[in-house]
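Reply to dn_fold:

You asked what the input looked like. This is it:
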Amino acid sequence: MTQIAVLGSGRVGGNLAQALTRAGHEVTVADRSPGSASAAALAAQIVINATPGAGSLERLIALRQELRGKILVDVSNATLDGPDGLPADLLHPGSSLAEQLQEALPDTHVVKTLNTMLYTVMTDPAALTQPPTAFLSGANAEAKQTVRGLLADLGWRQEWITDLGGTETARATEAAVLFVPHVIRSSGFAPFAVSIAR
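and this is what came back:
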């Protein structure tokens, strides 16, 4: 059992928190009340960033001390939204939220994953008709191995997980969010994921 803090109580955070609790972990969800994120992060071994990506950097920099020495699993995408509220452009072109977080939090092990799919697939990958891919980006091999274990608890088979390499590889998966509005407009909010066919 691992103590996990989920920052963000929306659809993504709530979905992950429920699934990880069912898997036997001790999960705390931080809400918007003052001090909630700090207390949750301080008590956790692993922190999941499921906050809206546009404000994630500022929120997490404020938790620098609480995140020291911990694994930060970043599932958010930092985007500029269009008039319909769907992603229209990247907030960090030529970089990524994960890279910005790792640079700002050098004592924290940032691992990017689960950001290339509709949120329902994060916790039910086998529901798709074809195997999806969960990508891993991060500088610390041990942290990525720990996150692999969490993904397994969420129903991800090891052959569905692809380690892309260092934190800089997150800019590729974060750019994939630009597919999302077009997929949603053409197919609605049906579950989907970016997948590598081999």
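The longest strand covers residues 3-7.
Hope that clears it up.
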